[in-house]
């Protein structure tokens, strides 16, 4: 998806409408929208998070107790 092209297309639609209800709906949506932390990540970070979730779904995880033991060797708790 080309986000810049999408934004321009959306702006053009808004600029060309006389539908006051649409304008008020868009305004209300934007004012009430909560930003998701995932949306604030860059593309590489999002890819890493999604890969981590996929690994967890495949059962490729390490138990917390094992991590504590591993890092405890270096004095980290």
The count of β-strands is 0
Low-confidence stretches: none
Determine Rg (CA atoms, Å).
22 Å
Q: How much of the sequence is in beta strands?
A: under 5%
**Large-scale geometry:** elongated
Through-space gap between termini: 43 Å
Helix content: 55-70%
How many DSSP helices? 4
The tally of structural domains comes to 2
Topology pattern, helix = H, strand = E:
HHHH
Mean pLDDT: 92
Indicate the structural class: mainly alpha
**Largest sheet, strands/sense/barrel:** none
Structure description:
This protein has 4 helices and no strands. With 77 residues, the chain is mainly α. The longest helix has 15 residues, at 43-57. Helices cover 66% and strands 0% of the residues. It has 2 domains: 1-33, no CATH class; 34-77, no CATH class.
Give the arrangement of secondary structure elements:
Elements: H1 3-16, H2 20-32, H3 43-57, H4 64-72
Overview features:
mainly alpha, 77 residues
Briefly, what is this?
With 77 residues, this protein is mainly α.
């Amino acid at each position: 998806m080309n986000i810049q092209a999408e934004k321009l297309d959306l702006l053009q639609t808004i600029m060309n409408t006389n539908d006051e209800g649409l304008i008020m709906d868009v305004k209300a949506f934007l004012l009430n929208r909560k930003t998701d932390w995932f949306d604030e990540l860059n593309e590489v970070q999002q890819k890493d998070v999604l890969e981590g979730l996929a690994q967890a779904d495949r059962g490729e995880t390490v138990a917390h107790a094992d991590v504590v033991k591993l890092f405890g060797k270096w004095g980290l708790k």
